[in-house]
Design goal:
The structure holds two protein chains of two kinds. By secondary structure, chain A is mostly helical. Chain A has helices at 2-16, 37-57, 69-82, 89-120, 122-135, 140-151, 155-179, 183-191, 196-230, 239-248, 252-280. The longest helix of chain A is centred in the last third of the chain and has 35 residues, at 196-230. Mean pLDDT of chain A is 85; it is low at 1-21. Chain B has a six-stranded mixed sheet with strand order 6-7-8-3-9-10, sandwiched between helices. In chain B, a hairpin with a 4-residue loop joins β9 (202-207) and β10 (212-218). The longest helix of chain B has 18 residues, at 165-182. Classes of the chains: A mainly alpha, B alpha/beta. Chains A and B meet through α8 and α9 of A and β6, α3 and α5 of B.
């Protein structure tokens, strides 16, 4: 899991430097009329928007099924100002963000120690590995009913559903990070007089931090996509709840707007975490 | 006076039938600079790890100051080929690591770390991050970090192996300076024949299958440098060339030519 994430980072780096810049290779001459990937992406999005606008304005599809971009934008403004189902857009967003972050903290509090146990102790691995492997592939909608039976329909159940979805990525990335700590680094610390507790606190955890942060990034993605499921039952606020309520009344423009808002927030979260990674673990990929 | 002694030590790794090292004895006193040389697979690093307490001998006894070695200890600091520094800390914090583990106050450990950095000629680089340093500078930080624990013995596992030839040559004199200044006993593993001659007070030649001692040389080139003779003059000495030939013969002795 973290391996994939690292190569992703490496590729992003290479992109920034415009090709590999190994000291012994000369800068490759730029091919003329090169088209940047960003430009292609921008054009793709514009074409899609144009197609959407055309389809809507030519009434190829009924507005009930496909509202025009303008209608969605208008709805965005209205919901942001006046609200939808008794809450403004901001209140929906905050309700969802609060659930996801509460779940994230729960997943960190449980997942990091579990990952540490898997990484450093054979017993820990024996106990937790099968549990996580069992939990990981189950879709949240499958265990949602059970959680409602056990914990009711209140806020804790919603947070728990999201937290369970986040647990495996956090724990497994932590374990991978812990297992990846170089032997020499551990031996050097031991020969400098580190006790087992000091070794974990001063060497193993910091070494695993890049991997842990990657896990948090994956977990946030997983948690955010579980949001709608978590807000299926007895929610009164939240983006997922807003979309479902709108769908029940066929208010398609709110549905589309909600989907876009969810996507934009997910994108923003990803961006923020990458920034945090750069500040917290500037050495990742440079060793 | 404290001695680091390996007495007829054998090393057997789990899952292997043949021992990596069989009945090797070594004696490193304070002020000694003992260098282990030999072809790959002769157990140099295994012996160093036994001395460090990172590997338990299958037979024989390893002691330091008369006490059996049961694990790693700050009286025997290890420096590895790859620096094994902590990239989340600055150079100064890396050097101060052993002091931090002991709960030395931030003030004191900063002062001590800066002294040690100056000793390895890295004064002023204390605030640098590890990845901003060159290979040679990193290895200097690694040495300073090992010395911060105030060890009686420095165990060096090919500390210059990953450096380029020019940097390595400069680091050799740095090592000698440190050895003379810190009054420690050194046990070092190297592949470099000339390096062994320049540094050692005693060279132990090992041969593989299983690792055993072939010959032991007493040399004084390192001491001559410590006494003030320039390194170039030492290397130009015909005695140096003669020793190198003899040492090379000893290393390849018994190997089909």
């Amino acid at each position: 899991m973290s391996v994939g994430a690292y190569s992703e980072r490496a590729r992003a780096k290479a992109g920034e430097n415009d090709g590999f810049s190994v000291p012994w290779s000369r800068p490759r001459p730029k091919p003329r009329r090169a088209v940047s990937a960003r430009l292609v992406s921008a054009i793709t999005i514009l074409v899609l928007l144009a197609a959407w606008t055309a389809a809507a304005s030519l009434q190829l599809v009924s507005p009930v099924f496909l509202p025009s971009p303008a209608a969605v934008w208008a709805k965005f403004v209205v919901v942001a100002r006046d609200g939808f189902v008794d809450a403004t857009l901001l209140q929906h967003i905050l309700a969802s963000l609060w659930r996801v972050f509460a779940a994230l903290i729960a997943a960190i509090v449980v997942g990091v120690p579990v990952g540490l146990a898997i990484g450093i102790s054979r017993i820990g691995r024996g106990v937790f590995d099968p549990l996580l492997e069992f939990l990981r592939p189950i879709p949240p909608l499958a265990y949602l009913p059970l959680i409602i039976i056990w914990f009711g329909i209140g806020e804790p159940s919603k947070i728990l559903v999201i937290a369970i979805a986040m647990l495996a990525p956090v724990a497994l990335s932590t374990a991978a990070g812990v297992r990846g700590v170089s032997r020499e680094r551990v031996d050097a610390a031991r020969s400098l007089g580190a006790t087992r507790a000091q070794l974990i606190r001063h060497v193993i955890l910091p070494s695993a931090l890049p991997s842990i942060l990657t896990g948090l990034r994956i977990a946030l993605g997983a948690g955010w996509s579980t949001l709608v499921a978590a807000e299926l039952v007895a929610a009164t606020r939240g983006l997922g709840f807003m979309i479902q309520s709108a769908a029940q009344f066929l208010v398609t423009d709110v549905v589309v707007m909600g989907i876009l808002v969810i996507a934009i927030i997910a994108f923003a979260l990803e961006f923020i975490i990458r920034r945090i990674e750069r500040v917290l673990v500037p050495w990742a990929g440079r060793e | 006076m404290s001695h680091l002694i390996l007495d007829k030590v054998s090393v057997l790794y789990g899952g292997q039938k043949a021992p990596a090292v069989e009945r090797v004895s070594l004696d490193v006193g304070k002020g000694d600079f003992v260098v282990l040389v030999g072809r790959s697979g002769c157990g140099k690093t295994s012996l160093l790890n036994v001395a460090a307490g990172l590997v338990e001998p299958a037979g024989g006894l390893a002691t330091v100051g008369g006490r059996p070695i049961t694990g790693p200890g700050p009286n025997r600091a290890v420096v590895f080929q790859n620096d094994a520094l902590f990239p989340w800390l600055t150079a100064r914090e890396n050097v101060a690591f052993a002091l931090r583990l002991r709960g030395v106050s931030a003030d004191k450990r900063t002062r001590r770390a800066d002294e040690l950095l100056a000793l390895v000629k890295l004064g002023g680089a204390g605030d640098k991050r590890i990845w901003e340093l060159s290979g040679g500078m990193r290895q200097r930080v690694g040495l300073a970090r090992a010395l911060a624990a105030e060890p009686e013995f420095l165990l060096l596992d090919e500390p210059l192996g990953a450096l380029d030839a020019l940097t390595r040559e400069r680091m050799q004199t740095t090592l000698l300076d440190l050895w003379a200044a810190a009054q420690v006993g050194v046990l070092m593993v190297t592949h470099g024949i000339e390096e062994a001659l320049v540094l050692a007070t005693r060279i132990v030649v090992l041969a593989p299958g299983p690792g055993h001692v072939v010959r032991t040389f007493e040399t004084d080139f390192g001491r001559r440098y410590a006494a003030g003779e320039p390194i170039r003059a030492i290397k130009a000495d015909p005695a140096f060339a003669a020793s190198r030939a003899e040492l090379t013969d000893a290393i390849f002795e018994g190997e089909a030519a």
